[in-house]
C-alpha cells in the first residue's frame, strides 16, 4: 500500500499547489489594471480626494504581496473583504447564493450521471445500430448548442406554450422541497441535457476502447455470456475511465451553471459573478473565481485519486 | 493423413472454408477455401507467413469470426455439430468447455482486475462441471504439472505480478480447466525469449499428451511446430499449400514453396578475422556503464571492439542491454562512465556534440521498417536527404546518386523513385532503410534486429544483400539480434550479453564450439531445431527439473 | 378526422409496406415505429402534433436530400483522391459541409446579401415579420434578417481570429515541446496545467472584468484560454511521432529542430490537427457567444448573435421565437462543424486500426 499512499499524497500536494498558483493568478491579475483598483472603480470623473480615500480604505498603500497574504488568509477563513459597490461583506453576499448553485448543480448531477452512464454503456454495446447513430446525432447536436439556446427552447415549450414549469427560477425561503424541485426543474433540465450528452459520449468511447482489449476476447472465447463479459470483465476495469468522465463533466457543470443561472434568473453565485463583472466589483469577482476554480480543481483531484484507487496494478503491487 | 490417427474418430472437420475481411468499404477474401480434418488426440500444426490466415482459421474452428471478418462459405463440423449454422448460444456453450483457446499475448489476455485462479475457475464453475473449491484444487494441480513455481500460491496473484512465461503456462492451465477436446494455441510462444520458450513448449506438449487433447498449434516457426505437431499443414495467402505428417513433411516436402521455406538459413557468409597488423579498431566500446534517467543500471562494464569490414553480432534476450549499447554508441544515451572510441579518437558522449563527420560514420538500420521511414516523404527524398546533407549534392547529381543507391539495393529506380513508403512491402521498406544508411557513405552500420519483423524468405534476401554490400563497400556491422540462426549465417564475431553484462565474446567459429559460458550454453541449446526429437533430447540432457526456473529467473 | 390525418397515416403505412417488401429492414423499423409513435401522439396532441411530426420529417428529408446532392456536387468538382475520401462521408458530414459553405457565403458577401445595414433602424421595435423585414424587427426596430447575416461575419469572424491565434500559439509550443523535451517541455506543460485548472468561462470573465471588452482583448484572452488545449493535443500527437525511428534517424543525422518539425512531424500530424481546429473553433465560438450573451462580448451596435439573443430575450415570455433565431444560428454552425469533425476523427481512428 506504500506506493498508493505516496501517489495519492503526491496528487493532493499537487492539487494544493495548483490552487495556490491559481489564487496568485486571480489576485495579481487585478494588479494589472491600468492605474489601480480605486481609479478603475471610481472612473475618470472622480476627484483626487475620493480616490485617495478609497485607496486608504482598501489599504492600497501596502505592497501587493502583503495584501495578497492578507487576502489569502481571509479567503481561507471565508472572509473575502467588502464589496466595492454595496459595501456589503462579500462572504455574506456569496454564502447563500453558493448554496443555491451547489443545489442546482447537484440536482442536475444526481439525474444526469446515472442516465448518461447507462446510455453510454448501451450505445457502446449496440454500437453502429440505428439506436447508436440517432443517439450520436442527438448528443452531438446538444453538445453544439449554447446553454442559452437549450434554455430558451425549454422555456418556450414547457413554460410559455404549455405552462407546466415556471420560466423564472426565483426562490423564497418558505418553499417546500417539492416546490423547490418544481421551480428549478427547467434550469436543471438544461444542465442535464448538456452534461448528459458529453458524459454519454465519453462513457461510450471508454467502454468501446475497453471492449477491444484481448482479455475481453479471451472472456468471450471462454464461453462467458455477454452480460457477464460486461459485468465481470469490462466493468472492473472501466471504473477509472468512468470516474474521470464523471468528474470532468461535473467540472463542466460549473461553467454551464453561470449561463443557465442568467437565463433563468436563478439567484446563484454565477449570476452574482456576472453582475460583479459588469460593475467591476473586484472583491466579489475574485472571490467567485477562486471558489469556481477551487471546486474545479478539487473535482479533478477527486478523479485522479479515484482512478489511482481503482487501478488493479496499483492496488496489488508486485 | 497421419497413420496413427487413421482409425481414430474425427473431431473437427472443416470443408471449403471461406472467410472474408472488411477493408476499404468492401469484403475481400482472406481464406479462400481451406479443408481441415482433425482426429481426437491429434495435434495439427498450422504454419505460414504473416497474412497467411492461420489465426483466422484458428478462431473459425471455434465458430468465432473476429470483428470485421465473416465466414462466407463452407462448413465447420465439430463432433457432429455444424458450427456455421448453430445459434450463437449453442456455439458459446462449446467455448471454454469443449474447445479452448490460448492466445499469443498472455499478459494482455488475462484480465488485470482478477486473480489468475478466479479466471481459471470461471469456465468450470459456469458450466457446472466443478464446484469452486474443486476447480481451485484442480488449478493448483495443473499448475504443478505445468511446473509453475509455488503452484499452490501462484494462482492467488494478479496477472501483472507474474512473468510472461509463467502467464503463458497459466493460460494453458486455464484452457485445460474443463478438459476440453480441442485447444487452439495461437502463437503461444512468439512473444517469449528462447530460454523461456523451451519451458513453455515442454509444458504444453506434456499436458496435451497427458490428457490426449487434440490441438491446433498455430505458429510461423518451423522448428517449433516440428516439436509440437503430429501433422503439419502449410498455408500461403489463405490457401493450403500442402499437408503431411511431421517427419515426412520435414524430410520430404513436395511443393516448391515449402521447400523454399525449409531451405532458408542455408545461407552462410565466410568468416573474416581481425587484422593482425595491430591497427586500431573502427569502433571500440570501453567499460561503458549506462542507466536511463532515474532507473537502475542497464549496462555494466560493457567492452568490445569492432574492426573495419567485420560483422560483430551482439546476442542476448530482451532486457539484456544490447539495444542500449547501440544507443550509447550513437550518442542517444550518454554513458555514465566509460567511453566510445572511433578509430582511436574518443567520440563525444552526446550526439548533439558530435561533428557532422562523426555522425556520418555511424548509421542505423532499424527493426520495424514501418516506423523507420516517414510515411509522408517520397523515397527519393528519404534516400536523397543524407546525400544532400552530408555530401552537399544537388539537382541532377543528387538524382544520379539516388538512382545509384536504389540500384545497389536491387530496387528499380524508375519504379520506386517517387513512391511513398506505405505503398511498399516489408522487405522493400527494409531495403530503403539500408539505402538511407548507405547514402551517408558510412564505414559502420548498426543493424538493430533488422530481420526479426520479416518473413523468413524475405529476411534471407536482406541478409544476402547486407553481406554483398559489406564485401563491395568494406562496411563494418554491429548486428543486434536474439536469433542465433542469423548469427550463424552472417557474424564474424559474437558478443553474448545478459543482464547488461558481456558474458562471453570471441570469433564465431569458437563461440559455436564448446566449452561455453553456462549462459551461452543455455541460449544455444534453447534454439529449436528442425528435428522433431530435438525437444525430447534437450529435456533429457538437461533433466526435467532443471529447465523450470532456469528460464524465468 | 381531417383529410390530413388520413393521408398522413396512409403515407406512413404505405411506406413501411414498401420498405418491408424491398427488405429494407432498418428503414422499415424506422417508419413503422414512427407510425406507432404517431398513434400515441395523435391521441394526445391531436392533428396539431401530427402536423408537427410531418413537418419535422419533411425538414429532415429536405436536409438529407440537400446533403446528398451537395456531397455529389463536391465529389464531382474535387480531385480523384479527395473524391474517394468524400464518398465515405455520411449524410451528417455532408450536411455539415453544406451549412459551413452557406455560412461562409453569408459572411463574406454580407453587405450584398443583407437588405439593410446592421445598425439601420427601419421599423418599429419588435415589429412582426412582413415582406420588408423577413424575420421582423429587433428591440430598436432594426431588421433581424440583415443583422443575422451581418452576425455571420462578425461573430464567426471574431471566433475564427481567436481560434487561429490560439492554434498558432498552442501548436508551435506543442511541437517545440515535443522536439526539445527537457525543461522547456516541463515548463510549457505546467503553464498549460495552471491555465486549464480554471474553468474557461470564469477565467474569461475575470480577464474581461479587468481589461474591458475591446475586440482585441476578447481575441487575446480567448486565445490564451484555449491555447493550452491545442498545446496538449499537439504535444500528444507530436509526442507519438517523435518516438518513431525515422525521427531518431533524422536527429542522428544532425538535423535541426526546425527541420524535424517541418519535415518529419507536421506532415504526419495534419489530420488530427485539422480535426482539432474544428473542435477548437466550436469551443471558442460557444465561449464568445456565451460572453456576448452575458453582455461582455462584441458591443452594440455591431450585430452579434450572442448579444442579439440577450437583447430580444424578453420576447420569449410572449411565445415569440425571435430570440431563438440567432441562438439557433449559433447552434446550427457548431452542430455542422461537429458533424464534419466527427467524420474526420472516425476516418483517422479507422485508419489507425488497420
Question: Mind sketching the topology for me?
Answer:
The complex is a heterotrimer of chains A (318), B (553) and C (354).
Chain A (H helix, E strand, L loop, with lengths): L1 H30 L5 H6 L5 H11 L5 H13 L13 H36 L4 H15 L2 H15 L15 H7 L1 H27 L2 H8 L4 H38 L5 H11 L2 H29 L1 H4 L3
Chain B lengths: L9 E14 L2 E14 L3 E5 L6 H7 L8 E10 L2 E2 L5 H7 L4 E4 L3 H4 L6 H11 L5 H14 L18 H13 L5 E5 L7 H17 L3 E6 L2 H7 L2 E6 L2 E7 H6 L4 H8 L19 E9 L5 E10 L4 E5 L6 H9 L6 E6 L2 E2 L9 H6 E4 L3 H4 L6 H13 L3 H14 L4 H4 L9 H14 L4 E5 L7 H18 L2 E6 L2 H7 L2 E6 L2 E7 H4 L6 H9 L7 H9 L1 H8 L2
Helix pairs in contact in B: 4-5, 4-6, 6-7, 7-23, 14-15, 14-17, 15-17, 17-18
Chain C lengths: L2 H19 L3 H53 L2 H8 L3 H18 L1 H4 L30 H37 L1 H15 L3 H12 L3 H28 L2 H9 L3 H37 L11 H8 L11 H30 L1
- Which ranges of chain A are low-confidence, i.e. pLDDT below 50, for 5 or more consecutive residues? none
> In terms of quaternary structure, what is this?
heterotrimer
* Strand content bin of chain A: under 5%
Structural class of chain A: mainly alpha
* Straight-line N-to-C gap of chain C: 57 Å
N-to-C series of helices and strands of chain C: HHHHHHHHHHHHH
Descriptive report:
The complex is a heterotrimer of chains A (318), B (553) and C (354). Chain A is built from 14 helices and no strands. Chain A is mostly helical. Chain A has a domain at 100-279: Orthogonal Bundle (MetI-like fold), CATH 1.10.3720. In chain A, α5 (90-125) crosses α9 and α6 packs across α9 (185-211). The mean pLDDT of chain A is 83. Chain B folds into two domains: 3-265, P-loop containing nucleotide triphosphate hydrolases (Rossmann fold, 3-Layer(aba) Sandwich), CATH 3.40.50.300; 283-529, P-loop containing nucleotide triphosphate hydrolases (Rossmann fold, 3-Layer(aba) Sandwich). The longest helix of chain B has 18 residues, at 456-473. Chain C has 13 helices and no strands. The longest helix of chain C has 53 residues, at 25-77. The interface between A and C is large, with 51 and 48 residues.
Concise synopsis of the structure shown:
The complex is a heterotrimer of chains A (318), B (553) and C (354). Chain A is mainly α.
Structure keywords:
heterotrimer, A: 318 residues, mainly alpha, MetI-like fold, 14 helices, C: 354 residues, 2 domains
